[in-house]
Amino acid sequence: MHINDLIITRASVEDAEILTKLSITTFRDAFGTDNKPEDMNKYIADEMNLEQLTKELSNKENVFFLSWYNSMPIGYAKLRATNTPEELKNNNPIEIERLYVLKGYQSKKIGEAIMKYCIEYAINQEHDIIWLGVWEHNQSAIRFYRRYDFELFGAHSFVLGNDEQTDVLMKKALK
């Protein structure tokens, strides 16, 4: 696989079914072994169903990008400029709410390409900060974000099914 063969497109409502399947697969791969099956199943049923993702794709506050290799969707990102943490209220931030790559394509610089695309999008939209929340136990993701100069600035609660977890918040200045 050559990274130059990767295509990143903006997703639309017509991509809802593709995004639903990709979301479920990547989320299970990322967190399934570290969480109770009932919590995973509840979260996926509530948050990653076709109706919910169609609604998210229809919301103009959300931007989804799909990454494709050989006409196959292999990763995606979701950005949004709402639900800003108090610490960033005096800025013009945008959040990377989700960034996932299929397990078989990790370590092939797909995540890097999607991250760079998201940062470039944020800059072009004149955001001054890009931020995200990441599960405190996901050390490989935290290391990945640090490579792009994201720094810790807080934490918030994330409920997976019935399990309340902690996400650390990370930000990167764009200006």
Per CATH, the superfamily is: Gcn5-related N-acetyltransferase (GNAT)
Counting DSSP H or I runs of 4 or more residues, the number of helices is 5
Low-confidence stretches: none
Strand content: 25-35%
- DSSP summary, beta strand count: 7
Portion in helices: 25-40%
Q: By helix and strand content, what is the structural category? A: alpha+beta
Question: What is the architecture at the second tier of CATH?
Answer: 3-Layer(aba) Sandwich
CATH C-level class is Alpha Beta
Rg calculated over all Cα atoms: 15 Å
SSE ordering: EHHHEEEHEHEE
User: What's the end-to-end separation, in Å?
Assistant: 34 Å
**Rounded average pLDDT:** 95
**Strand arrangement across the biggest beta sheet:** 1-2-3-4-5-7-6
- Characterize the largest beta sheet: strand count, sense, and whether it forms a barrel: 7 strands, mixed
Instruction: Return the domain count.
Output: 1
CATH topology category name: Aminopeptidase
Shape designation: globular
Report on the structure:
The longest helix is centred in the N-terminal third of the chain and has 16 residues, at 16-31. Helices cover 34% and strands 33% of the residues. The protein has one domain (3-131): Aminopeptidase (3-Layer(aba) Sandwich). It is globular. It has helices at residues 16-31, 37-47, 50-58, 110-124, 139-146; strands at residues 7-10, 62-69, 72-80, 93-101, 129-135, 151-160, 163-173. It has a 7-stranded mixed beta sheet with strand order 1-2-3-4-5-7-6, sandwiched between helices. The protein is built from 5 helices and 7 strands; from the N terminus they run βαααβββαβαββ. The chain is an alpha+beta fold and 175 residues long.
